[in-house]
Design brief:
Layout: H1 8-13, H2 55-68, E1 72-76, H3 79-87, E2 95-99, H4 104-114, E3 120-124, H5 129-136, E4 141-147, H6 159-168, E5 172-176, H7 181-184, E6 194-198, E7 212-216, H8 219-232, H9 238-248, H10 251-270, E8 275-279, H11 289-294, E9 302-307, H12 313-319, E10 324-325, E11 335-337, H13 349-355, E12 361-365, H14 371-381
Helix pairs in contact: 2-9, 3-4, 5-6
Bound molecules: pyridoxal-5'-phosphate.
Pyridoxal-5'-phosphate binds next to helix 3 and helix 4.
Length: about 375
């Protein structure tokens, strides 16, 4: 069976199967080895040293590449390690146009690690085509780094339009597709050059592993990323590669259920008297909804909402019984996060205020529980 003529759900379920011809093991074995013996001088089994390549990691990487329709996939020790690798494709004095309300850890990487090295981020509202066009006019810009939907405000970029703009200026487009996954959005099909993931989230899906991934569009980019992955060495170990592979098998099922639950929760929140605003791209009236419909993408399982009085926040966080007050997303269990003091604390207060990441904003990662329990839990605390 070749990945290219297989539906995505089938490809994911079968990930790593039929690999071990020697034993017929259904599940991909965990190749817990640093090194591989050589059959003879000048010969290799295809594997030499696990920093360079490891069979368990390779099964995951091949699955990730096929799922996104890319040339190659690369698995890293974390989402930030994957993003770090991609930013190393740039040189001092290069600039990247970057989504302004992006994950705080990525912002920290840009500001505290890459800016001192001379690689600068110029922040823009990537849901505004005019703002992206204006930002790309700077001749120093060599890259466009987009999160869509954004974290936590779920703004939607027209990836097809902005990738075309970037390409016309010879600018590389990188999309962080953590929130929608290849099941709900395929950035390479829309013209992006590289896709990055925090595989910690939906791809692995069970809040039990930290992992990251890069998917490349062209052989040339694959060669450069493969070089960096091996040269820098922030690879995913075989145990964590196996856990991620195992998680991927149910990705299509999970995201479908998470999205169904999220739409119901978002609709319910929208009619609650203590809720001032709900950010969810599946709700009619959301400015990005038409773009996602046109691209046959989905809305995903993330919701942000603003309550009428920030003084209620401590009670909500202490009172939830089904939602867990914790800092992550994309797992089977539902989580509630307070972006201003958790995920986005590294973004300065003025920027947070301007973006709308205020003291009354809460973020939900919707899981696969019975949606009646999720709504009941919110009803109790609100
Ligand atoms: C959108 C997004 N990108 C990247 C990351 C970083 O991933 P990791 O925590 O796996 O390093 C996160 C983490 O929350 C994220 O939400």
């Amino acid at each position: 069976m070749t990945p290219t003529n297989t539906q995505l759900a089938t490809l994911l379920v079968q990930a790593g199967n039929r690999y071990d011809a020697a034993t017929g093991a259904i599940s991909m074995p965990i190749y817990q080895t640093a090194s591989f013996g050589h059959p003879a001088l000048g010969q290799s089994t295809g594997f030499d040293y696990s920093r360079t390549s490891n069979p368990t990691r390779l099964a995951l990487e091949e699955t990730l590449a096929a799922a996104d329709g890319g040339h190659r996939g690369f698995a890293f020790a974390s989402g930030l390690a994957a993003i770090d690798c991609v930013l190393r494709l740039f040189a001092p004095n290069d600039r990247l146009v970057v989504t302004e309300d992006l994950y705080g850890g990525t912002f920290r990487l840009f500001e505290k690690v890459f800016r001192p090295l001379g690689i600068e981020a110029a922040y823009a509202d990537t849901s505004d085509l005019g703002a992206v066009r204006a930002a790309l006019a700077d001749p120093r810009v060599r890259g466009l780094f987009v999160e869509s939907p954004t974290n936590p405000l779920l703004r939607i970029a027209d990836l097809r339009a902005i990738a075309a703009l970037a390409r016309s200026r010879d600018v590389l487009t990188i999309v962080d597709n953590t929130f929608l996954t290849p099941c709900l959005q395929r950035p390479l099909d829309q013209g992006a050059d590289l896709v990055v993931y925090s595989a910690t989230k939906y791809l692995a899906g069970h809040n039990d592993v930290i992992a990251g991934a890069v998917i490349t569009r062209t052989p040339e980019l694959s060669e450069r990323v493969a070089f960096l992955q091996n040269a820098v060495g922030s690879i995913l170990g075989p145990q964590d590669a196996w856990l991620t592979l195992r998680g991927l098998k149910t990705l299509a099922l999970r995201v479908a259920k998470q999205q169904e639950n999220a739409l119901a929760v978002a609709e319910w929140l929208g009619s609650h008297p203590h809720v001032r605003h709900v950010y969810y791209p599946g709700l009619p009236g959301h400015p990005g909804r038409d773009i996602l419909l046109r691209e046959k993408s989905g809305w995903g399982g993330m919701i942000a909402f603003e309550i009428d009085d920030p003084a209620r926040v401590p009670g909500i966080l202490a009172g939830v019984r089904v939602f867990l007050f914790a800092e992550s997303l994309g797992g089977v269990e539902s989580l509630i996060t307070y972006p201003a003091v958790q995920t986005h604390a590294d973004i300065d207060a003025e920027t947070r205020r301007r973006l709308g990441i205020n003291a009354g904003l809460l973020r939900l990662s919707i899981g696969i529980e019975d949606v009646r329990d999720l709504i009941g839990d919110l009803e109790n605390v609100l």
